[in-house]
Specification:
The complex is a heterodimer of chains A (about 70) and B (about 625). With about 70 residues, chain A is of the alpha+beta class. In chain A, about 40% of the residues lie in helices and about 30% in strands. Chain A has one domain: Alpha-Beta Plaits, CATH 3.30.70.100. Chain B is an alpha+beta fold and about 625 residues long.
Chain lengths: ~70, ~625
């Protein structure tokens, strides 16, 4: 399952780091972050519940970039 | 400017004023140096508090190589070493650069989102009281009746059930030609209703409608990253740590070696050089400017009715070496038209055409349709009797008491008519009256007016080979190819052969070259997906084309193809300029600062200055 989320982040390098961080979260198969459109596309593992995974994604992102936010 | 940007601008102005005042004061007032050092902390704190905080949070989360950390270490180091003005100024410039970058990116974002404004956020329905009510278009089921008032956008694809109007499709195609529509016509979401009130029965859900699909496509395009972008990601991953460790080495190794050799322990100089290193180490200029260039290129293309599904396709199309065209509907209009009338003596062109049209009056064959379209609309002067079709030959009818034959050569031969052969390219209709040959009419698929010009432009962009594929016969294909100026053509192909032919060209392409296929999206989806880059034309309303192609032209204007190639080339040139410029300047500054030739001022230029220039360069891609 793929879902797109709106994100808020200040720099392109930080967006890249969010992408890397999201990919390591359990339940996430793949992730792409576009700094230009401020969007994050997350592909979930089969059977993963986005509602449950996303808070952990945000947590992982906050760790690498404290100034970020994801709307979900 | 956003609130955040305004606040940052304020901080920049206030702290730079204080900094300048302090520099002047230090020059003229005989106060102790230590006092000034403390005073310099005021502007430093005003401008740098958020960076310091972020750096601290980064350290706690073990994210040491981020920009904030680097800036914090470099400036705090400079302050400790007594270079208070430099330390503050570096932080100041860094913030100016950040502000500038955020404004530039915001601008680009806005100019792209102008395109997004075609997303309709409501639909009008007539409620139980008979009044108009605005509802979320997402909630409407297929078959609902919606009302579109003048000045509104059509939210969902459908068919007009009441009213007529002219529609402005410019948001979708880049063309401003209005299209007149009335009851029974299919209309596409995203078009602006110019004047009349229309009622539409929806044929799709909102999410499946053209406008939603197009917007999804554009929004997702920056998710498909180009090779150049991936290169930068990898580069940044190694570059920053390498520079940071080199900085540490630079701070320790040379002074220790020099110290051991007995030339004195020069830690101060070398630490300062190492700090300079840190300032240069941020790869921001590259990381921001490359995606920005692609984003701008894709945005600029969108505004011209060229939708690119990903940065990777924009990158690929810049290397187009071979362009393969499907003929019908791409190079030609895809409709048959009468192109030549050759009457025998005793007949005028008009008479010949009307006779043929009258004979074909009840036929729905494309040839008959084109004859009837060109002939007089009022054929009541022709009394048609006993009309019948001879399969594979043509039509036989009695018109005004005379036997009229209209069909191919076989029809003429089987009726022993002495006819004059017509060798023109296309479909030939021979006409005989009472077994006397009356003349011939040439019907052909007409080449688009600007096609030859567009092909010339394509060759001018450096495409070495253009190919036309067609199911037409050899003569028609040859004539069209010569008229258009394509370098090679293949005729009498079945739809399946087109994939094979395209594959042959993919095999013979030179390294680094790519093969584009251009089709109208009708039954060439397999070729569109097989080619390196599939370009679909006239995609407005054709879902199959939007799905299968990598680049989608909203209308069927062939001159958009050279335009797309030019946009891609320009974008890639800017990307290359930025990569070379940014990496070049950084490496140069790194080397110079290792030898102590440059100072922190230069380092700030290498970081912020390069970024500003690269971003400015990148925003050029928006302008076509």
């Amino acid at each position: 399952m793929k879902k797109t989320y709106k994100i808020d982040v200040d720099c392109a390098n930080c967006a890249m780091k969010m992408e890397d961080a999201t990919k390591t979260v359990e339940g996430v198969k793949d992730a792409t972050v576009s700094f230009m459109t401020l969007k994050m596309k997350v592909e979930f593992e089969d059977g993963a519940d986005p509602e449950e995974v996303m808070p952990r994604v945000l947590e992982a992102c906050k760790k690498v970039e404290s100034d970020c936010d994801i709307e979900f | 400017m956003t609130k955040k940007q305004k606040k940052n601008l304020q901080r920049i102005v206030i702290s730079s004023c204080i900094l300048v005042l302090l520099v002047i004061a230090e020059h003229f007032l005989p106060l102790p140096e230590l006092l000034f050092r403390l005073l310099y902390l005021i502007p430093y704190y005003i401008i740098g508090n958020d960076v310091l905080l972020k750096a601290w949070k980064g350290i706690r989360n073990r994210q040491v190589f981020d920009e904030a950390f680097l800036m914090a270490v470099a400036t705090i180091g400079a302050m400790i070493l007594g270079e208070t003005v430099e330390g503050t100024a570096v932080m100041l410039f860094y913030q100016i650069g950040e502000l500038f970058q955020s404004i530039a990116v915001g601008r680009s974002r806005n100019s792209i989102s102008e395109l997004m404004e075609i997303r309709p956020d409501y639909a009008n329905i007539i409620n139980e009281d008979g009044e108009l009510e605005k509802v979320d278009p997402d909630d409407l089921e297929v078959g609902s009746i919606i009302v579109v008032q003048p000045g509104e956008r059509i939210p969902i694809d459908g068919i007009i059930v009441e009213g007529s109007s002219s529609l402005n499709t410019s948001a979708l195609t880049g063309e401003s030609m209005p299209r007149d529509v009335s009851e029974g016509d299919t209309v596409i979401s995203g078009c602006l209703n110019d004047n009349g009130l229309i009622k539409i029965r929806t044929t799709r859900e909102f999410g499946e409608s053209t406008v939603s699909k197009i917007l999804d496509l554009v929004e997702n395009s920056s998710m498909k990253k180009a090779k150049a972008e991936n290169f930068i990601t990898k580069f940044a991953r190694y570059y920053t740590p390498i520079v940071c460790w080199s900085a540490l080495a630079l701070a320790i190794i040379p002074p220790v070696i020099l110290g051991l050799q007995g030339s004195g322990w020069e830690f101060r100089t070398w630490i300062f050089r190492a700090l300079t290193f840190l300032v240069i180490s941020c790869p921001c200029a590259l990381v921001i400017s490359i995606p920005l260039s692609f984003f701008g290129g894709i945005g600029g293309a969108s505004r011209n009715g060229i939708l690119v599904k990903g940065s990777n396709y924009l990158e690929a199309v810049a290397d187009a070496g071979i362009v393969v065209f499907d003929k019908t509907g791409t190079l030609t209009k895809g409709v048959f038209e009468v192109v030549d009338i050759v009457p025998e003596e005793g007949f005028t062109e008009k008479e010949l055409l009307n006779l043929a049209a009258a004979a074909e009056k009840y036929s729905t064959h494309p040839v008959a349709v084109s004859l009837k379209k060109t002939a007089d609309q009022d054929l009541s002067g022709y009394n048609i009797q006993d009309e019948h079709e001879i399969s594979g030959h043509g039509i036989q009818a009695i018109i005004n008491g005379k036997e009229v034959l209209a069909g191919n050569q076989k029809l003429m031969r089987s009726n022993n008519v002495e006819y004059r052969d017509n060798n023109s390219a296309g479909t030939i209709v021979y006409v005989a009256v009472d077994k006397q040959f009356a003349g011939s009419i040439v019907i052909s698929d007409v080449v688009k007016d600007n096609a030859a010009n567009a092909l010339k432009e394509i060759h001018d962009t450096g495409v070495r080979l253009t190919v036309m594929l067609t199911g037409d016969n050899q003569a028609a294909a040859k004539a069209a190819a010569e008229k258009l100026g394509v370098r090679e053509y293949h005729s009498e192909l079945l739809p399946g052969d087109k994939v094979e032919k395209t594959e042959q060209y993919i095999e013979i392409k030179k390294p680094g070259e790519i093969v584009c296929f251009v089709g109208d999206g009708i039954n060439d989806a397999p070729v569109l997906s097989r080619a390196d880059v599939g370009i679909a034309m006239g995609a407005l309303g054709s879902d199959a084309a939007i799905e299968a192609a990598d680049i989608v032209l909203m209308d069927d204007d062939i001159s958009k193809i050279p335009l797309a190639i030019r946009i891609a080339r320009k974008c890639l040139r800017i990307v290359r300029e930025n990569v070379i410029f940014a990496i070049g300047v950084k490496i140069l500054c790194l080397i110079l600062s290792a030898f102590g030739i440059t100072n922190m001022w230069w380092a700030v230029f290498a970081d912020v200055g390069v970024m500003v220039i690269a971003v400015l360069n990148a925003t050029r891609t928006l302008r076509i």
